[in-house]
Amino acid sequence: MNATYLNELGLICALGNDCREVAAALLAGESVGMQVQSGWVPGRSLPVGTVKARLAAIPDKRHDTRNNRLLLAAATQIDPAIRAAIQRHGAARVAVVLGTSTSGIQETTQGIRHHSLHGQLPEGFHYSHQELANPAAFLAEHYELAGPAYVISTACTSSGRALQSARRLLDLGLCDAVLCGGVDSLCELTLNGFSALEAVSNERCNPFSANRKGINIGEGAALFLMTREPGRVALLGAGASSDAHHISAPEPEGRGAREAMRKALADARLQAGQIAYLNLHGTATLHNDAMESLAVSAEFPQGVPCSSTKPLSGHTLGAAGALEAAFCWLLLSEHNPDNRLPPQCWDGVADPQLPPLALVGENGPGLAVQGPRYLMSNSFAFGGNNVSLILGELSNLSGVPR
Prior knowledge:
This protein is 31% helix and 21% strand. It contains eleven helices and 13 strands. The strands form two sheets. It has a ten-stranded mixed beta sheet with strand order 5-4-6-8-1-9-13-12-10-11, with helices on both faces. Pathway: Lipid metabolism; fatty acid biosynthesis.
């Protein structure tokens, strides 16, 4: 298998409006975008990870959703590189593979509310807003691409699988460049759904704590330009599993999660001890954190520096896999010259019923090991859907035969 490179990254989320802002806030363990808001769930005020940037409207009303506005904001950051790739390879050789779980469902919710009040749908309403494939169709039309364009929607692993699928397109020779990643926007449907599952916390989420009470929802977009052309950061490994344990609860022993991590390591031809940092799925729900603790402690018996970044960004659902891979990309980039790691933001009260993890912070490692840097990111989803990704630096690839 040829090495696959993540050459460029466009990024927007509650941590900031571009790579520089996100990296600074990520490494400082700060997020001004995590704010308590009312109006999403009746009778509740909840912390949510909100993008504060003013997002440009999209002239084509078929595609003018907040989801696509977030996607466009990310794409605009790397627009010159995208257009250069199209010029170099041709429109038919550039693909789009994205992950989402919300698409434009919030616009549909607003449209239905308008209809119930006024007896008609609002001006500019399009059924296409809610189509899961809409983000890929929008981006392909925006850049006049003729290559494969599709969306993967597997709940919280959607965009992790999108990166894996994008790499497969390159390996099969079906294209020469892929715009890949994920996007999800805040919407009433998901917030009320998770609230009905009693999975949403009234406080900032507290991963792996004995006091954890559930998730915070966030929004964001992460868009990579992936090619076979050498760059600083490569997607070295991807592993996926589907244990199908339950429609919403994870397999309690973490067998599917561990299988995804093991497959990613095998794909990258690395040993667990070579991973310098693990971005945990870490949703702060009782069952996910328990399962992931068991899986990580089993797969990394010597320990691995790790943290959950969801208290900073919120859980961005379908965008989470790509967003947290983007965080790893930032750690390997010029935005992190000191090789720092994102701190674990929690109350420090470890759950005595869980295996201890090497959480980054005051009592844990704060710097990545010197030498080769290989970083892993976990994403786990409803239905027992699990994905692990491994990113590494170009300078280290000579030791990893492809």
